[in-house]
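Our platform keeps sequence and structure together, in a single record for each protein. Nothing more is needed to write down the fold, since each code stands for a local backbone conformation. An entry from our holdings is shown next, in its original layout:
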Amino acid sequence: MRAGRVSHPGTTGHQPVAPSAVAARGAYVFTPTGPQLAPTPRALSTGEVESFAAAARGAVEAGFDGVELHGANGYLIAQFLSGNANLRTDRYGGSVAGRIRFAVEAVAATIDAIGADRVGLRLSPGAGIWDAIDADIPELSGTLLAELIALGPAYVHLAGTDEQVLLGLRRGWPGALIINPSTPSNPVPVDPGRRERWLAHGADLISFGRAYLANPDLVERFRTDLPLTVADPNTYYTGGDDGYLTYPDTLVSAR
């Protein structure tokens, strides 16, 4: 994951990078001293896509089975896809073909580094998170997936977008597809009916994120139909154990 402009010098010691020198409007990012207004980033040079490959090699050397490139939620890859964050006039901006180029090259470089069977890509078409607003959503996402077919990544992971868009992308993507059916208005996809509906629509797997924060025994809770705890966003990125190690594990408690 490269956060791109959703970062701060107070966290990294460096000016954030992005497709263009455009700050995320009204966005406060997490820093060690608390939320700070997102600064103006510098425009990324075209040669820096290799950093994804270097990170992937490091992950595999450390023992990971593979990597998922985070192209969703308004982070760096999503910023290149965005019509308002990406104002470039070179081959990485403007047209649909230009705006998807960075994502395709990041996936290609990572696959060259560690192999296609170890690489996935997460996308959130139209989610609009962190002021990364997409334009031409079905065309942009469909064209991106069509370019990825030849590269053969292990899977594509879609989240936080309109159901009709997801259905269209499922029809256009022949490979493995992971769906996270959360949306900004319904962020926790724990309803069994929603999960089963997406499996019926052709999803190969359903993913969970925030539900795991508040339920360390999530798989067992699903298996035994136990109630779920809802994660408290007020504890996100605040430091310390609260909100990370303090949610109850009912199975441990019962023992």
